Amino acid sequence: SQQGEEDPQALSIQEGENATMNCSYKTSINNLQWYRQNSGRGLVHLILIRSNEREKHSGRLRVTLDTSKKSSSLLITASRAADTASYFCATDARAAGNKLTFGGGTRVLVKP
Amino acid sequence: EAQVTQNPRYLITVTGKKLTVTCSQNMNHEYMSWYRQDPGLGLRQIYYSMNVEVTDKGDVPEGYKVSRKEKRNFPLILESPSPNQTSLYFCASRGSGANVLTFGAGSRLTVL
Asked: What is the 3-state secondary structure (H, E, C) of chain A?
């Protein structure tokens, strides 16, 4: 079963708007990561947030982590058409033998 | 350039005809893994390898074999492919002490 589940499954926004997607997970984690996948291509690592961190930034990306709620969010600010992709959260959980477990992803469409 | 290379990128085959998808990485990574990606199911791990000659089952290993004779290569073998193995396959690797995966570009397999 999936450890991380993203919400929403799909998101459509206009260029320049912000995009927010959420990830919920079930068991304690060492860290949580976000990956991006352009259509039919390999996943690319975006950002990693450790269990003792609450917020992390990388360029136009902002990730938050709430371990009490077992949830994380990814915010893309000032979106661009090139941000159109699927975004996946992946959890590194002790209970899973420290392997990464991926959620089902959020498909983001940024309209020009 | 540091990368994970998969071949073939696209393959159409018939039920029962053995095939191998190769995966090679040039980053001297210890850990390598195979995933399959299906609509609505996200990425599911097939097999992984912690190092040379060490392999283990992931979440969906049935119908697949792997080997890890050299550090850089981790081929995925389908001895007798069936239509339910039609999928998009990804190889990924990471170094020891890191849990960020580098993915290959993917191999789209169709079994008729």
From this structure: CCCCEEECCEEEEECCCCEEEEEECCCCEEEEEEEEECCCCCEEEEEEEECCCCEEEECCEEEEEECCCCEEEEEECCCCHHHCEEEEEEEEEHHHCCCEEECCCEEEEEEC
Contact A88 B103 (CB under 8 A): no
Pairing of strands B31-38, B87-94: antiparallel
DSSP states along B53-95? TEEEE-S--TT-EE--SSSSB--EEESS--GGG-EEEEEEEE-
**Partners of A89 in beta bridges:** A34
Counted across chains A and B, CB pairs separated by less than 8 A come out at 49
Q: Cβ of A43 and B104 within 8 Å? A: no
Q: What is the bridge-based pairing of β-strands A55-58 and B31-38?
A: unpaired
Q: How would you write the pLDDT of chain B (112 residues) with one tens digit per residue?
A: 889 999 999 999 999 999 999 999 999 999 999 999 998 888 999 999 999 999 999 999 999 999 999 999 999 999 999 999 999 999 999 987 777 999 999 999 999 9
For residues A91 and B74, what is the distance between their CA atoms, to the nearest angstrom? 23
Contact (CB, 8 A) for A58 and A77: no
